[in-house]
Amino acid sequence: MADSAVIAIPARLSSQRLPRKMLLVETGRTLLEHTWRAARGARRAAHVVVVTDSEEIAAVVRGFGGEVVMTSPECPSGTARIVEALPGLPAADVVVNVQGDEPELAATAIDAAIALLGACPEAGVATLVTPLRNEADLRDPAAVKAVLTPWPGVEAATPAWRAIYFSRAPVPAARDWSPALLASEPPLYWQHVGLYAYRRRILEAWDALPESRLATIESLEQLRIVEAGIPIVAGAIDHAARGIDTPQDYARFVDRCRARGAA
Length: 263
What we know:
Blueprint: E1 3-11, H1 31-39, E2 47-52, H2 55-63, E3 67-70, H3 78-85, E4 92-97, H4 107-119, E5 125-131, H5 135-139, E6 145-150, E7 161-167, E8 190-199, H6 200-204, H7 213-218, H8 222-227, E9 232-236, H9 247-259
Parallel strand pairs: 1-2, 1-4, 2-3, 5-9
Antiparallel strand pairs: 4-8, 5-8, 6-7, 6-8, 7-9
């Protein structure tokens, strides 16, 4: 392949909790442009491409110098949008799915996910997790938990974990609960960071994967990969970036931008 990796940012205009959030511009740049600029800092990816069904979003992306691949509006998820866009994406062995509402996702985190696939050739997908230390987050269905086991054969300098399951429930469930469990080392509880680095062949076969009852009941698309038997390797980062889902999230993001002079 011509490039080691390409980053695809699925972006749609509709959003129930924060209408038209991709094009919010209180900082002087759209939310989507912030995400695009952050993703462009990744050293292991040669291209960043926005994948959208919106001509309005496409025009904005072209206006700030970005690449766009158009898809149909029927795509049910960001991954499905990327799968439809595959023929139009630059050649690369790895396709990284970065959500358009993750403007503070570190470029080093993207690089770490791509590097994991190099360190773990048996893995079909790489993702990220962060230690979960707060009981409120553990009980919060919006904070997705990952159940992990050490990935065999990986050097200690590159710690990696195999993802066994993802859930909105507080898992693993302790029969005898103690808050001290949240301080365990290595961590017992992990919060999933919604970034995926796919080997291109996994996305090429996406539509042929069996449907997943677990993915449906938990409303977690990654469980379709787990049920299909595709190994997912997870790397740990210190903390999760703050995605933008609500007006309050966006207001806090604007405040952070202004505080660091980035608005």
